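re: ur question from earlier - yeah i can do the single chain one, its not a big deal. heres the input i used so u can compare w yours
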Amino acid sequence: MTLVQEEDNVTAGSIGAPWRIGTRGSLLALTQAGTIRDALVAAGHEAELIVVKTAGDLSSEPVQQIGVGVFTSALRDELAAGNIDIAVHSYKDLPTAQDPRFTIAAIPPRADPRDALVARDGLVLGELPAGSRVGTSAPRRASQLRALGLGLDIVALRGNLDTRLRKVSEGELDAVVVARAGLARIGRLDAVTEALEPVQMLPAPGQGALAVECRSDDSELIEVLTALDDAATRASIIAERALLAELEAGCTAPIGALAEVVESIDEDGRIFDELSLRGCAAAVDGSDTVRASVVGSPANADELGRALARELLDMGARELLSVAEPGPSAPEPESGSNTQAVNAPASDFTQPSPMENNQ
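and the output i got, formated as tokens:
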């Protein structure tokens, strides 16, 4: 059963009960939800944080084993039950299938979507010697790391950001790869030894973006939250997630995507906005990767994402995504002994789901 706990109330002198913002209890999740609370307070609305415990927070098993949507379903259950008014998600955790009960009323400006390397001795990726143990929670990251041909030993990893960083500082791992946005939000950018450029590693669709969700029939709150929306970020996320949906990729699928709204100049010297989208699909064993890109109008973000997905499928993405995991090292037990994992299942195309948890 989901447990709900109230945080300290924060008010801004508006009339009526405070908006209740649901969030997971990790430092990162609380920080992310806190930015939405603070924005509402600054706009003259009362708001408070409500901590919702999820099955994912109570388990140390890999996401593939504890189930898809584990980090979002508990928040949505509380939202549907009326126990909270707003849910704040890391957008990449949300299933691609829309739930008509809810609406994403706001997508605030996106943080830097790149992945970040945190390595011992200040090393960058190219300086890690062959055989270095690199931890990551995401098949997407594992596949792209293997594709670089550096001979790294990829180790499955779970836990919050502090836990992951500690595995490097205490010598259990030589490095970890995590979302740069998460480190920025909790004030730990000092730990980053290299921000990985998209040419090395495309991020997960939606990485670095927040989804501010409420009930679809709450027109008053939708109007309030819409003021927090960033049009460029919304167009980018629509394109990236349309690509993911068209590929019908599950949480074990190594797919990367990154969209950006950029300024262009036509032949008459007029400046206009374009949406640039890059995408990739990889064999999880790193044996092959297909990449493609497309440019178009931000107004056509959904179709651009789906068109790029079809191009990737024409290039063989379906076959690559069905390649089984080569059996990376399992997360180390508390004793620190080395235990090998069995081969992970191939990508699941049967139900849309989040790519990876929000770390």
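Confidence is low (pLDDT under 50) at residues 1-14, 62-68, 328-359. not sure if urs matches, ping me
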